[in-house]
Fold this protein.
Amino acid sequence: MRPWTQALSVYGLLLVLSVVLLRFQVLAPSALGSATAPLSKVALVAADNVRGSLASMAEGRRTREEIQTLTRRNQELRQQNELLNVELGRLRQLTQITSTQAPNAVGIAQVVDVAPSPLLARLKLNRGRADGLRVHMPVTIPAGLVGQVIEVSARKSTVIALVDPQSSVGVTLSGGRGGRGLAVGSPPNRLRAEFSLGVPVKVGDVLVTSSLGGVYPVGIRVGTVEKIVPVGPNDVTRTVIVKPAVDVGALTDVTVLGAL
């Protein structure tokens, strides 16, 4: 039985007892009144206690309801704060890219899917033609170049990442050291870049985009030279293995740039 039900039962019994005692007092006020007076007082005190208990339980219920309401409101505010922080991070990313890579950013897009094939590196974005996206638009983040848009629908688009075997990008040594080359995707997570034998490329060199191909703005970080492939006696180019600046599998938001 619930506590408030028990309290009501006790309260009812005490009321009945009080009525009975009052009845006896009417029949024999002088003799019975003095004998039952203590019992009447006890009954009245008990009734007051029961009323107080009922009021306390009601107040407790109101307090619990208020706590639940405040808890829900606190959770809602936390969620709103998290969303605001995410949006602020996107705006900072957009500002950083427009100031360091290219001023013609179209906007931020979310990565909603990644191609499951280990041989391909394709990303699905939640932005499409209705948002101003077009084929051949570069896709980047502050850390470096991601790839370019290759398919566009009304509300979705597909990006081919640099490490995809069907992707290629013109590269050069950072810092204005020259040496134009071409980097192609090498699954699952590297690129192979070809330079002429006269280019002084070495392990640790940073490669950035060049004007070759006319798709990407010049100077965006592509990756770091990880290995120099030994040159054969008949080779006319030097091949290097490049670790990309961007981990495609860890992407959540990207910035889409306007096509050149």
